[in-house]
Amino acid sequence: MKPTQSDPTVQPVPASVVATVDAADTTLSNPRWAVLALGANLGNRLETLQGAIDALGDTPGLRVKAVSPVYETAPWGVEPGTQPSYLNAVALVRTTLPPSSLLERAHAVEEAFHRVREERWGARTIDVDIIAYADVVSEDPVLTLPHPRAHQRAFVLAPWHDVDPDAQLPGHGPVADLLAALGREGVTSRADLELRLPE
Ligand SMILES: Nc1ncnc2c1ncn2[C@@H]1O[C@H](COP(=O)(O)OP(=O)(O)OP(=O)(O)O)[C@@H](O)[C@H]1O
Ligand SMILES: Nc1nc2c(c(=O)[nH]1)N=C(CO)CN2
């Protein structure tokens, strides 16, 4: 039936309202891949890593596609012997969230596991970093993409290479080459530990 001018349900929506609603819709129509690095060096490290993966899997618009093997790693960037060792892993996700929303979600997951931000590179129950988001390159300090130190970190490159041997770190080249150049010192496989995909 053709609506008439007097039908109140066909009032035109003002352009300003359309623009506001569109701006508030922060999902993308196309899912993108992203690489997340997880690290924990306080508390029950494996349990926390699994909890973070499950929490990420509970995120609307995000699907965890692969979870890497677990590595026990020497704390990077601090005096040796000043912190407990880390468990590290990498998750590959597909998401319709834009990068800023993915970072918000990563921070919410950290908060859920009582991460306390005190000093730079301080010990933590959980750290969730965005290593790469599709092929986005951004120097924004709030969200630098790819992660500005990923290419220097075997604790990121080794698990990433395990789940995606052909991976490329945007702007830096093949992960396999970066890992070969860096070496695996301080990064030990923990084949006795396993992380699951979210149920
Ligand atoms: N790719 C990224 N992933 C996560 N956080 C990022 C990224 N780029 C910039 N940041 C910013 O870095 C800030 C500090 O992050 P965080 O406390 O996790 O650092 P860190 O884990 O101690 O050190 P690092 O950044 O070297 O891993 C965050 O609040 C975030 O805004
Ligand atoms: N081994 C290891 N060292 C670190 C880690 C980490 O996850 N693993 N994270 C840091 C800040 O992101 C600083 N140092």
TrEMBL record:
This is 2-amino-4-hydroxy-6-hydroxymethyldihydropteridine diphosphokinase. Pathway: Cofactor biosynthesis; tetrahydrofolate biosynthesis; 2-amino-4-hydroxy-6-hydroxymethyl-7,8-dihydropteridine diphosphate from 7,8-dihydroneopterin triphosphate: step 4/4. The keyword Methyltransferase does not apply. It is an enzyme of class 2 (transferase). The keyword tRNA processing does not apply. InterPro entries: Hppk, Hppk_sf. It comes from Streptomyces vietnamensis. One of its GO terms (molecular function) is 2-amino-4-hydroxy-6-hydroxymethyldihydropteridine diphosphokinase activity. The lineage of its organism: Bacteria, Bacillati, Actinomycetota, Actinomycetes, Kitasatosporales. NCBIfam families: folK (TIGR01498). Its EC number is 2.7.6.3. Residues 120-131 form the 7,8-dihydro-6-hydroxymethylpterin-pyrophosphokinase domain. It catalyses: 6-hydroxymethyl-7,8-dihydropterin + ATP = (7,8-dihydropterin-6-yl)methyl diphosphate + AMP + H(+). Keywords: ATP-binding, Folate biosynthesis, Kinase, Nucleotide-binding, Transferase. One of its GO terms (biological process) is folic acid biosynthetic process. Gene3D superfamilies: 7,8-Dihydro-6-hydroxymethylpterin-pyrophosphokinase HPPK. It holds the Pfam family HPPK.
